[in-house]
Amino acid sequence: MKELLRPPRLAPGARVAVVALSGPVPEERLQAGLDVLRGWDLDPVVAPHVLDRHVEFPYLAGTDADRAADFQAAWCDPSVAAVLCARGGYGVQRMADLLDWDALRAAGPKVLVGFSDVTALHEAFATRLGLVTLHGPMAAGVDFIKNARAQDHLKATLFAPETVRTIVSGGGALVPGRARGVTLGGCVSLLAAELGTAHARGGARGGLLMIEDVGEEPYRLDRILTQLLRAGWLDGVAGVGLGSWLDCGPYETLRRVLADRLGGLGVPVAEEFGFGHCDGALTIPFGVAAELDAEAGTLTLDEPALR
User: Fold this and answer.
1) Is 199 designated active site?
2) Could you confirm whether 212 is annotated as catalytic?
């Protein structure tokens, strides 16, 4: 697991593009998110198809080709310093193979922000572009619009990343210990769904795996983790940090599943890091060398997420 290239941090006045790669975006939430970005002295531009809704499949924000074209154009625009996803849902996997990865690589490093379904794009950026990405709140998400903690942590990560090098959990150690590695992860059901695809990495060896999910009952999370174990994807992982598990059943039940499936790895596992599908979600950079201290409940980055 190698450290990835860190994109430049943002400066006041930077232009940022907002794209919809997954589910349809409510216009009122989009406008509220744009107001937040303007309040940060950013210049947000909206991709042409952000408010589209697929005619046949209303769970998609427009056609696969249009969503891919929006992302391609935003990333390859030299005036754009960051691309922010508007929301999650489902759809990134349908458009990822339509992207011109050579053109994206030639456009140079910039910031990508998103989570949930965007996990598939985090993985693709790691394997295809070798870039650090940010698992953080999305521009039309309720948490981004209304929660000061989520806003403040993302803003600090974008503008002053040296101020948020240590991320503190609200819980303790499911398995005690310390570990060093390179951060990766996201929505664990998406990591399992990526197995065997062109954009998936071979495994998490040497990594600090930061995972969360939403709406998956304990038996389904058991199945997801079991699949990753049986595929050998978790072989050699250095440590695990757990985020939010919204609507995943009683936490005590889920905790037993996590302990059962992850405890046998023999590595530190830290709980309740407060990222993902939760109020006040923190921003986690992927591709940065760090130390996980499960008992202290800290993830400390060797360097700021952005340079």
Assistant:
1) no
2) yes
> Confidence class of residue 1 from pLDDT cuts 50, 70 and 90?
confident
What is the DSSP-derived secondary structure letter of residue 299? E
Q: Which residues contact 93 (CB under 8 A, 6 or more apart)?
A: 117, 120, 193, 194, 197
Active site residue 244: no
Let me know how long the chain is. Answer: 307
Query: Which H or E run contains 251?
Result: helix 251-262
DSSP secondary structure of 133-198: EEE---TT-HHHHH-HHHHHHHHHHHH-GGGG-EEE-SS-EEE--EEEEEEEEEEHHHHHHHTTST
Query: Do 52 and 27 contact (CB within 8 A), yes or no?
Result: no
Identify the active-site residue in 212, 216, 271, 291: 212
Nearest to 78 by CA among 15, 19, 161: 15
Question: Per the residue annotation, which of 116, 169, 189, 244 is the catalytic one?
Answer: 116
Helix (H), strand (E) at residue 17? strand 15-19
Residue 21 has pLDDT above 90, yes or no: yes
**Per-residue model confidence as pLDDT tens digits over 117-128:** 999 999 999 999
